[in-house]
Amino acid sequence: MDTKFRLKFYLIIFLIIIIFGTLAFSFVENMTLVEAVYFNIVTIATVGYGDIHPVTPAGRVLAIVLIILGVGTFLGVVANATEMMLNRREKQATSNKIFMLIGIFYSEAGNQLMKVFSRYDPDVRQLVGRLNIKGNWSQKEFSVVRQLLKGYAFSINIQKVGLIQLSDFLQKNRSLMVRLIEHPTLLEHETFADLLRAVFHLTEELNYRENLANLPEHDRAHLCGDMQRIYKLLVTQWVDYMTHLKDFYPYLFSLEVRMSPYNPKASAIIK
After folding, report:
1. What is the mean pLDDT of residues 52-72?
2. I need a labelling partner for 18 at 20 to 30 A (CA). Which of 28, 87, 168, 175 fits?
3. pLDDT band at 219; cut points 50, 70, 90
4. What does pTM read for this prediction?
């Protein structure tokens, strides 16, 4: 049973106790509705009776029952609300750490890989206009792009890819990939973990081949599948990363927009 469900459960029980106690006090103590509400809250809060107190045996029994049930339920509400708030804060802190890692990855290798794969994508024109993210984008624009990516066929013309250059680039960034994979918070973000595994796998595949210039067609097709897997994960994760920056780090978002792989006039200089 998760915290959110427990909190809802205790809130419902607490509300039932409030309604039941109010109606019951109104009946057994012959009180008005306002007096019964006041009396019920004072009883559950256990602050002590000052101006009024139960005068009938049934009212005193009812007060005992409400104190036992009400205090326990109220403490359950407070405890679960506090736990949910702490969990949300911890989750946000973990998310910030993961997106910091994602930012390092794209800065050092991811953006360059997107440029490489996009260059050899025969249908890339369908993406360029839609992925040229602007500084004033709202959540609606990001949602539209996500829907587009779900139906987009991330294809690569393997015949045009410079496998030797790609292998050299991946080997150069191999230590970075290893450090990121070893980070303890990585498993909290499945998409980014899958992306790193895919990149590391392609690095290994290319490294095991002694002659990348003369590979058979079936082997090139196999490598093409690995690249297309990375290509899709790269772009999908990049859109999520840009959304995060837009929401939490506008100054980082501004630079990423200016240097976007899909910005035809990419430049850090503000004009």
Report:
1. 78
2. 87
3. very high
4. 0.74
Question: How far, in Å, CA of 14 to CA of 40, rounded?
Answer: 12
Instruction: Please classify residue 22 by burial: count the beta carbons closer than 10 Å to its beta carbon, then call 0-12 exposed, 13-18 middle and 19+ buried.
Output: buried
Count other Cβ atoms within 10 Å, centred on residue 107: 13
Residues across the chain: 271
Residue 67 CA, chain-centre distance (Å), reads 41
Domain annotation for the chain: domains and CATH numbers = 3-87 (1.10.287.70), 92-258 (no CATH)
Kind plus residue range of the DSSP H or E element containing 80: helix 57-105
For all residues of the chain together, what is the average pLDDT?
87
Of 263, 235, 16, 237, the C-alpha closest to 114 is 235
- pLDDT given at position 48: 65
Residue 16, token pair as written in the block: 């039932």
∠ Cα 134 245 232 (to 5°): 75
Ramachandran sector of residue 207 (left: φ over 0; alpha: ψ -120 to 50; beta: rest) = alpha
Q: At what angle do helices 163-172 and 111-119 cross, to 10 degrees?
A: 170
Alpha-carbon distance 106 to 39, whole Å?
Answer: 62
Residue 59 CB partners (closer than 8 Å, separation 6+): 25, 28, 29
Rounded Cα distance, 255 and 242, in Å: 11
